[in-house]
């Protein structure tokens, strides 16, 4: 049966960084882009309608959010994750990268240690390095095709390196793990025991592919966690509105919230995107049925890649994702170094994927592929990849 997500929508000429700037970013103009994490799908109709109404009004002044926005937000968190939030906890930011970067600056001083779990989203590395904090790695372990946490290393590093902040990525980009309750509790208890603040990036919370599970909000697992946690969320990945840069951060602990707000003031971060607020409220209030359809479609895309690789390209291994539309592919069996792998993917296969090594230790020999696209585009991409591998001999 045809799906709305099968429709091919030409994004050329929209100033999309995925589709319009290949040459500027050193790629051939005709490369098939499957990198940056936005999707090639139209947002839910309630979002488009709400935006059209706001645009039709024609005045785009400074804005804030009222009860309607909070009701949509809190209703979403309650329905989807069983999480009760209070209006006072909300800090709105222009994106999650801005939020976790501000949090790093707010809760640490120059030279302080911040722990992340590579291979992981590159701006988490940047937030630490560019602010002259010390990056501490708790590298994930790949065991039988599944990533796991090295808990001994996690605790040892926290103690030995005097870690102040842990940036948790849940679900994890790029390895696709949706951390289990047990895994989160083990990490949380270690952080509690050693006074570590947790900045929990849950931007992919809605993109659970495993139908047997629900996303676990870290701060909700124990009352004590809520007092050490900054939870970063956004409707941007879920509803394909990343360009509107609107995200919601939740901090229950009042003094902790004040410290972040002060840092935001210091950086001149003030006010939010009027259209972003409109889209966010409309998405959380009216986007649920669309999201369920999207998740089914993404499961189909993942299944397509899984089956295709098994049948045609067993040398390329899919790390089975539990969440997100970002697939972590293991190309190590091709025996190429990182530069050669990138050249092979771009020049021979005509695909623009994210290079694995940009995610830090553990990323070499891998690449991240975004499957938030129509099935026919994915079929084309996989065909190009197969042909290029065959041509290598
Ligand atoms: C884990 C993670 N955090 C944050 C972001 C981006 O957040 P924003 O665009 O809201 O700054 C992404 C985008 O891919 C992501 O994967």
Topology:
Blueprint (H helix, E strand, L loop, with lengths): L31 E2 L11 H13 L9 H15 L8 E4 L2 H12 L5 E4 L5 H8 L4 E4 L3 E3 L2 E3 L2 H10 L2 E7 L11 H13 L3 E5 L21 H4 L2 E5 L2 H4 L7 E4 L3 H13 L7 H13 L1 H25 L4 E3 L6 E5 L7 H11 L2 E2 L1 E2 L10 E5 L4 H18 L1
Parallel strand pairs: 1-13, 3-4, 3-7, 7-8, 8-9
Antiparallel strand pairs: 2-10, 5-6, 9-10, 11-12, 12-15, 14-15
Describe the protein.
This protein is α/β, with parallel strands linked by helices and 393 residues long. It has two domains: 4-44 and 289-392, Aspartate Aminotransferase, domain 1, CATH 3.90.1150.10; 47-286, Type I PLP-dependent aspartate aminotransferase-like (Major domain) (Aspartate Aminotransferase, domain 2). It is 40% helix and 15% strand. The chain has helices at residues 45-57, 67-81, 96-107, 122-129, 151-160, 181-193, 223-226, 236-239, 254-266, 274-286, 288-312, 338-348, 375-392, and strands at 32-33, 90-93, 113-116, 134-137, 141-143, 146-148, 163-169, 197-201, 229-233, 247-250, 317-319, 326-330, 351-352, 354-355, 366-370. A seven-stranded mixed sheet has the order 2-10-9-8-7-3-4, sandwiched between helices. The radius of gyration is 21 Å and the shape is globular. The two termini are 37 Å apart. The protein binds pyridoxal-5'-phosphate. The site of pyridoxal-5'-phosphate has 13 residues, from helix 3.
